Amino acid sequence: MSMKNIVIAAGVVLAAGSAFAQQSTVNGAAGGAVTGAIVGGPVGAAVGGVVGAVAGTAIDPPPERVVTYVREAPMPSDAVVVQENVVVGEALPSTVVIKQVPENPKYSYAIVNKQRVIVEPSSRKVIQVIN
After folding, report:
1. Does 47 lie in the same domain as 73?
2. Distance from the first to the final alpha carbon of the chain
3. Which residues pair with 119 in a beta bridge?
4. In a shared domain, residues 73 and 111
5. What region does 20 belong to: left with phi over 0, alpha with psi -120 to 50, or beta?
6. Same-domain status, 22 and 49
7. pTM for this structure?
8. How many domains would you assign to the chain?
9. What is the DSSP pairing of strand 108-112 with strand 115-120?
10. Cα distances (Å, whole numbers) of residue 76 to 95, 110, 114, 130
C-alpha cells in the first residue's frame, strides 16, 4: 500500500468516525476498528480503532430517567433558535442556556430549534437529540 493510499484510507476512516460521533450511540473502539478494517484494511483498522475509542469515551448514552425528564420538560415560552445545526458531539453556542437535570447533575439539557437535547454540562457538548 503506498503512502498516498494510507493517507486516503486514514481520511476516509476519520470521516467514518465523525459519522459515528453524530449518532446518539457510539460503538467505541471495536466499531471504529471494524469500520476502519472494512474501509482501509489493517492500517484503517488501527486508525479506526483510535477514532472509535475517542468517540466512544466522549459520548455515552444517558440513563432512561434523564431522557424521560428532558422529554417531559415544559417547552419554554422564549424558544431559542440558532443558525448552527444541533449535532451530537458538538458544543452548543454560548448563547444557548442549558439547564441541569435535577436528578442527575452529570447531565444538562436545552431546547434549541424546537429540539430537546441532552448536554454534557462542562463542555456543552450535545450527547443526544431527543425526537
Report:
1. no
2. 44
3. 108, 126
4. yes
5. alpha
6. yes
7. 0.55
8. 2
9. antiparallel
10. 15, 10, 10, 16
Helical segments of 77-128, H only = none
Cell numbers for 120, please give them: 454534557
Do residue 126 and residue 74 come from a single domain? yes
83 and 34 assigned to the same domain: no
Same domain, 86 and 109: yes
**Residue 68 sits in the same domain as residue 54:** no
Structural domain range at position 42: 3-58
Tens-place pLDDT, residues 2-49: 444 444 444 444 444 444 444 444 445 545 554 455 555 565 545 554
In single-letter form, the type of residue at position 93 comes to P
CA atoms of 32 and 93, how far apart (whole Å):
28
How many Cβ atoms from other residues are within 10 Å of residue 60's Cβ? 14
- The pLDDT tens digits for 55-76 are 444 457 899 999 999 999 988 8
- The SS3 of residue 108 is strand
